[in-house]
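Researcher: Re-running this chain for the archive, since the previous output was lost when a drive failed. Same request as before.
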Amino acid sequence: MFRNIKNTLSRSTAMKASVVAGLAVAALATGIPAVVSNSYADAVNVQAPQVPSFANVVDAVSPAVVSVRVESRINPVADEDDSFGLGRGFDDLPDDHPLKKFFKQFEQQQQGRGQQKGQNQQKNSEDGKGRLRPVAQGSGFFVSEDGYIVTNNHVVSDGAAFVVVLNDGTELDAKLVGKDSRTDLAVLKVDPKGKKFTYVGWADDTKVRVGDWVVAVGNPFGLGGTVTAGIVSARGRDIHSGPYDDYIQIDAPVNKGNSGGPTFNLNGQVVGINTAIFSQSGGSVGIAFAIPATTAKDVVTDLIKTGTVSRGWLGVQIQPVSKDIAESLGLSDASGALVVSPQDGSPGQKAGIKNGDVVTAVNGEPVKDPRDLARRIGAMQPGAKVEVSLWRDGKPQSVTVELGSLPADQNQASNDDSQPNQPQQPSSEKALADLGMTVGPSDDGKGVAITAVDPDSDAADKGIKEGEKITSVNNQQISNAGDIAKVIEQAKKDGRTRALFQIQSDDGSRFVALPINAG
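Model: Regenerated structure tokens:
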């Protein structure tokens, strides 16, 4: 079809050429001047509204953004066999054979190199030094004219030496001032040597709306200063990286090496610090997460002042309040933070907070969920006295807690005290059957062991498994199946349709709300 169209066009063009040529000949024959000219259409030029340029923002902020090169000391390890074994198999050759002489000389050279390598390795081990090798690349930005730089903790965490590269290519050695793994932030410092660096300020990210333009500047894949643009896609994202998750999601392309780099609003203020991406390929798919400026500002200030971050500590293990849990406790809303267990000797335990309590407010401000509680307590200073509102035994209460200082290691101490096994008491088989579980004595005498779970039961749907323990029901300690039946009967009398079970496993303790037969 295309060929036929082409041939037709060719014939048409030839005919037009013949006509033109004929007119020209006729014109010459009659003495009339022949004027033949080509006519061209104007180039396409669409008059459309122009999208605002980011160039002014980029020109202003680029000098404040740096690339971060991280190096670590690597102690070389000598190979088990530095010779390549090329002389093996030639032992049977005569001693004066050229090949045998050649490989003997080669092996002697290799042994000499191995000895020198071993001496160097021993020297490096003795003086505690090894060869510096690049281990990571990231991004950062100046927050002061005297050389303080913000980046991510995961960029610098394995480093022994740091080099920052300015946008004009200047390389400067930097030292680590402090880092905070819980928010993935770190601060470096370079010696200004009388120079004043261009630096950027923090935005009030609480005023940032979904849909606002943002510009990300950083060092993706080690390419150097690179600018990408997008919008704020979402706020308050929890990516399960820690207790203070409250990320801003953006769709500006962010890749490996952008970590620690800033995301700006159109005023050139830092809205967030790029720290993570969602990707199955390792490259950008338009989903990136930034630490909000309001979070970063306080942490960075502490790191610059003291090199560490001081946080308030309540000392309780918490979990979300689901609709089922709220109904089982008589709460009207599925909000707050359910206390699984207070740590021994923690401020929360000393103030009287118990497992099964629901923290509903701090200093009169409602608590939405466990993350909200963790952020609020963490933002307070150790030693501060706070009023904690609780929901306990179907009614509100409040306690005053003097916050402690968040320990570096939050591993909870386990109670290894054991008690003799107690005989299993008679129980309501019907109540346990309705729950879809069978129970037996626990090894330590605390609670009851779950010996079987009906795979078609609500208990199985909630993730309860054989081998776990039930330690309380509706915040009442139980020691046998009969205790479970009594608590459930009382819950039915109170008009409850669900009961709250505290389940203990190797991974810790949690609460699960199970429906109870109201008949």
